[in-house]
Task: structure prediction
Amino acid sequence: MNPKVNRWLDLLDRAGWTFIQAAAAAGITVLSGATLGWRAGLTFIGVAGAIAVLKVVVGQNTGTDDTGALIGTPVIEPPPTATPTTGGNG
Result:
């Protein structure tokens, strides 16, 4: 059974975290003493986020299911099957 994925929430989750990670990287870069103007910082964050959005859109429109996996194989594994117990009372 293939799961149903809300594409908009998937996009927001994946690309949103990339924006947060890029902003954190820009902040750490500034805190380390590097000079990074606000325009360069916004460009840094915007480009990383735009690439993430593009990756998600491409992932959602390729493959055999709608999980957004780019590797050609679903990233959600089937649930484990129960293995019968042998012997014993428990």
About this structure: The longest helix spans residues 7-31. The helical segments are 7-31, 38-60. Residues 7-60 form one domain. The mean pLDDT is 77.
